[in-house]
Amino acid sequence: MSTDAEMQIYGKAAIYLRKPEKERMEAQTAPFDSKNACYVADTKELYLKGLVTARAEGKCTVTVTHPDGTKEEGKEFKEADVYQMNPPKYDKIEDMAMMTYLNEASVLYNLKERYAAWMIYTYSGLFCATVNPYKWLPVYDMEVVNAYRGKKRMEAPPHIFSVSDNAFQFMQIDQENQSVLITGESGAGKTVNTKRVIQYFATIAVSGAKKEAEPGKMQGSLEDQIIAANPLLEAYGNAKTVRNDNSSRFGKFIRIHFQGSKLAKADIETYLLEKSRVSFQLPDERGYHIFFQMMTNHKPEIVEMSLITTNPYDFPMCSQGQITVASINDKEELDATDDAITILGFTNDEKVSIYKLTGAVLHHGNLKFKQKQREEQAEPDGTEGESQTSFHLITRHGQYLMYSFEVLSLQVNNSVSALAKSIYERMFLWMVIRINEMLDTKNPRQFYIGVLDIAGFEIFDYNSMEQLCINFTNEKLQQFFNHTMFVLEQEEYKKEGIVWAFIDFGMDLAACIELIEKVKCLSGL
């Protein structure tokens, strides 16, 4: 275990990564009743600390300590609801697999105590568990990156940088591709940690090669472009949900390719973009960030070229829920988005087209139609100006498109919504293609490290088909994770004759997954 002096290489991050020596020494000598110290089940707090005072007939009498420090004597519990407590030296332990008593109560208390000290990373055997702090911590600075570089897992405190560096070392030693799977519920911090993995590789594996400049383009280095891809994709693919202010509404698999120990190229594969969010949001949610970034008027030229206003309520398609998010500064985010477009090498014409198409999507939501008298057709209801604006932003053949709409039936409103969602999706996919073109240096490469960031599992009051697909994909990945890391491991125990009570790690949802997979109409989607 590192001394306080050795931890100085982490700078300001040291106190957020490991307990100081004084605290570790005090824990070694703290009084502890190893036979009677326990956790007991509680309906409100889930688990409380306690001390067993008597045992009889399968029951325990416990003095319970509440969070405010008050004690309650003489409470009776079943033995099954009483869990052994680890000695104080295991408090805030960095790897929970090292605990003497590994039970749910001890795991939760350890995570809780580490979180209270803002130690958000904790190992559990092969895994690194992360608790979202919902605040900025100085644990991702350059000195922290350098401190983790080249270190083995047990030589440094738990961190996403350590996981990243281990993947990098294994790739070089084993000469095989590696993958980092980041999973969890919505709001757990998957997207942020994905960005930190990319940041780490872009820092330690600088290619040193400069891309040839192309006429009409301003672009950064490969490392800059890899990092810049995230702000642009987040602007067009992230939104506020009930549980997460910056929820990824799409999944992405990022491959970072290497030639030896240097970056060679990168590519991004996306899937399951939540198109319905373009035209529909629940009351406590918000549409995609880009709409609100543009309407800040932080860059007036964007408002002018996209022919939009600065009032989100002028566009019903994106203002059914919230229009501001306390934790997000839309003006600063617009700067990041606009800079990313430049760094990635989009031409000025392409940048203008992106903003114009985004504005056109908003104008589509303002189109209204009415039923023609005594006819099975619909016609514009005083919104001809909006249609001309949206078509002007999209194409020079607006008259033809307008005529096509005028002969549609009463379902024209749904058709317009579908068109807006389709335009948005195709623009998003086109941007991904262009980003991949920019990140392809044509340099030789040997192996890659893949980073998977999947949209989080969420259950809403109203769940779309897209949310079902997101949850289904998320659960499939979780089942794969459980099967690979737990089930197969336990089978090895059986083969080796180790006495082991088989544990069901969430595989009970397999039946639901199989049901969905067997229905042809669902699996086809």
Layout of helices and strands:
Layout: H1 21-29, E1 37-42, E2 46-56, E3 59-65, E4 71-78, E5 82-84, H2 104-116, E6 121-124, E7 127-130, H3 142-148, H4 160-174, E8 178-182, H5 190-204, H6 222-237, E9 238-239, E10 247-248, E11 251-259, E12 262-271, H7 289-294, H8 300-306, H9 330-343, H10 348-364, E13 369-371, E14 378-380, H11 384-394, H12 398-406, H13 412-439, E15 447-453, H14 465-495, H15 510-518, H16 520-524
Helix pairs in contact: 4-5, 5-6, 6-9, 6-13, 8-10, 10-11, 10-13, 11-12
Task: Write up this protein.
It is a single chain. Residues about 395-400 have low confidence and may be disordered. The chain is about 40% helix and about 15% strand. Helix 4 crosses helix 5, helix 8 (about 300-305) crosses helix 10 (about 350-365) and helix 11 (about 385-395) packs across helix 12. The radius of gyration is 27 Å and the shape is globular. It has 16 helices and 15 strands. It has 3 domains: about 5-135, Roll (SH3 type barrels), CATH 2.30.30.360; about 180-455, Myosin VI head, motor domain, U50 subdomain (Four Helix Bundle (Hemerythrin (Met), subunit A)), CATH 1.20.120.720; about 465-525, Up-down Bundle (Methane Monooxygenase Hydroxylase, Chain G, domain 1), CATH 1.20.58.530. A hairpin with a 2-residue loop joins strand 2 (about 45-55) and strand 3. The protein starts with 20 loop residues before the first helix and ends with a helix. The protein has a 5-stranded antiparallel beta sheet with strand order 4-3-2-1-5. The chain is α+β, with helices and mostly antiparallel strands.
